[in-house]
Amino acid sequence: MIRWRMERKGSLWTALVCSLVGLAIYLASSMTGYLAGKGLSAVVIVCTLLAWVCLAPVELARLDGGQSTVASIRSLAAEVLLLIAFAVFAMSRVRLAADVYFIPVNYPPSEQTALNWSIVGVVGYAVAIVAVIVRFCGKPRPVAIPADSGAKV
User: Fold this and answer.
1) Residues facing 143 on adjacent strands
2) How many separate domains does the chain show?
3) Strand (E) positions, the chain?
4) From the centroid of its chain, how far is CA 95?
5) How far apart, in whole angstroms, are the C-alpha atoms of residue 69 and residue 61?
6) 137 by DSSP, 3-state: which?
7) Among candidate residues 147, 97, 103, the one with its CA nearest the CA of residue 122
8) Transmembrane ranges (predicted)?
9) pLDDT tens digit string along 45-88?
10) 70 Cβ neighbours under 8 A, 6+ residues apart
11) Alpha-carbon span 24 to 135, nearest angstrom
12) 2 is a domain residue
């Protein structure tokens, strides 16, 4: 049996990609279509960018060894920033959801499209938040792999 440490490197990349998708959808849905010209919150943009800045050095520090106190603080800061971005994005689309789902008469089809894309963006932020939690909570566990399984370590 070969023993190795299970790494969760994919979780960090998942968080970065999903938050990038969420931010791109937020920007696109805020500047085009039904929501064009109705306002763009800088809080979502700034919090997402600061979360990326917090996550990159943490990953580099984890490559050198264990998780330091500074890395823990940075990961917590990234989590809080992503939560703020998520909350502001979701709350800015509440009126849109109310118009489409609770007052289902006389709304333009572009309003439904903007809502659908916004839901995808909010889900992107939610997946990024969960991925950061998975990445930085808990310790990697050793996993046993049979030597004849063909897995390369």
Assistant:
1) 4
2) 1
3) 2-5, 142-145
4) 23
5) 11
6) coil
7) 97
8) 12-29, 35-55, 76-94, 114-134
9) 999 999 999 887 766 655 555 556 777 788 889 999 999 999 99
10) 61
11) 23
12) no
Task: Please tell me the pTM assigned to this model.
Answer: 0.78
With 0-12 / 13-18 / 19 or more C-beta atoms within 10 angstroms meaning exposed / middle / buried, residue 103 is exposed
Nearby residues of 109 by Cβ (< 8 Å), 6 or more positions away: none
Instruction: Spell out the SS3 assignment of 73-106.
Output: HHHHHHHHHHHHHHHHHHHHCHHHHHHHHCCCCC
The boundaries of the domain holding residue 123 are 8-147
Residue 152 lies in a domain: no
Q: What is the pLDDT of residues 19-53, one digit of tens each?
A: 999 999 999 999 988 888 777 899 999 999 999 99
Is the four-CA dihedral 55, 57, 59, 61 of positive or negative sign?
negative
Residues 6 or more apart whose CB falls under 8 angstroms from that of 57 comprise: 71, 74
- What is the amino acid identity at position 81? L
Residue type, 133: I
In a domain, 1, yes or no: no
Q: Which residues pair with 144 in a beta bridge?
A: 3
Residue 50 counted as domain residue: yes
In eight-state DSSP terms, residue 37 is T
